[in-house]
Design goal:
alpha+beta, globular, 41% helix, 4-stranded antiparallel sheet, 33% strand, 76 residues, 2 helices
């Protein structure tokens, strides 16, 4: 995982389950109000790039942190 104040990049081994999980979390948590999520395939990996829409928005920062924590917990 690569992360800075306003964005993060997370990679997993490619599978439809990973893409579905990201989509489900984004919907359940209303993340698209605060974050721009881009999911791409890079060779055998799924790459999620999450960026805060408004860097001054503390709710966006909180949502990014919560998303990353949730994804890390599920990866274990």
């Amino acid at each position: 995982m690569h992360r800075n104040e306003v964005a993060a990049e997370v990679r997993w081994v490619a599978s439809f389950g990973v893409v579905g999980e990201v989509a489900r979390l984004a919907t359940e948590q209303g993340l698209l109000r605060f974050l721009t999520l881009t999911v791409t395939l890079d060779g055998g990996e799924v790459v999620l790039v999450a960026r805060i829409k408004d860097p001054a928005d503390t709710a966006g920062r909180d949502r990014l942190s919560a998303l990353l924590a949730e994804l890390q917990d599920r990866a274990k």
